[in-house]
Amino acid sequence: MNRDYLIFDIRRTLRNRRVLIFAILMPLVLFVIFGVTLPKDASEGGISAVAYVMVSMAMFGSMSAAMSSGGVIAAERDGGWNRTLRLTPLKPQAYVASKVILSLLLALPPLLVVFLSGMIFGHVHLDAGQWATVALVSWLGALPFAALGLVIGYVAKPDSVQPITGLATMLIAAFGGLWLPVDQMPSLMKHIAQLTPAYWTGQTSRSALTQSGLDTHALLVVLAWTVVLGFVGLRRFRADTARA
Length: 244
Prior knowledge:
- The chain is an all-alpha fold.
- It has 12 helices and 2 strands, in the order ααββαααααααααα.
- It has helices at residues 3-14, 18-36, 49-67, 69-78, 81-85, 92-120, 128-140, 143-155, 161-175, 187-193, 197-207, 216-243, and strands at residues 43-44, 47-48.
- It has a two-stranded antiparallel sheet with strand order 1-2.
- Helix 2 runs parallel beside helix 6 and helix 3 (49-67) crosses helix 11 (197-207).
- The protein is elongated, with a radius of gyration of 18 Å.
């Protein structure tokens, strides 16, 4: 990874605050509407229903923010940035790693805002260890979506990348059980949910709220999604720079 390029990328991305503001406000509003209004004694999947919704909305926000890197990549392609990169010592692996790290940094604010809202307004009570575990696992759960944003950025055209990213985010969240618990879905949708990375990231994050601890199977599936999508993104980057 090239530190100077990463710093440059972070500064440039932070100039466009609209995407990050949307990624924060949307899950926050949904949590206030669907989470804070729930009865305090309601439960879902063996945990507090408010905490369940809090984690789901936090994951939705981090997913949206992480996938937004696709728009930056598409803009770079359109401006001939890949052609310029071929003249520098920056390696493809370093470029991909920088984009993934950037996506993870963008995923942090939505998580923190929703978790703080859950603590203050939703009265979600967890010990320090649980908060730390849920926050860390949820943050790392953005990895497959960072890789997916990379893939979209190299497949879609600049004028279509935002609609594609927005539609993909909504569909993955809806079918992955972030807006409606999978247990309440029809049988067919339950099977479809398990084919999405959102289902497994949600399972991993919410398992940190239970007494049994992290769901290691779900965690391995999330890692598998990350590796596969990261590999596809790296291949697309190499193919695109070769054409340039």
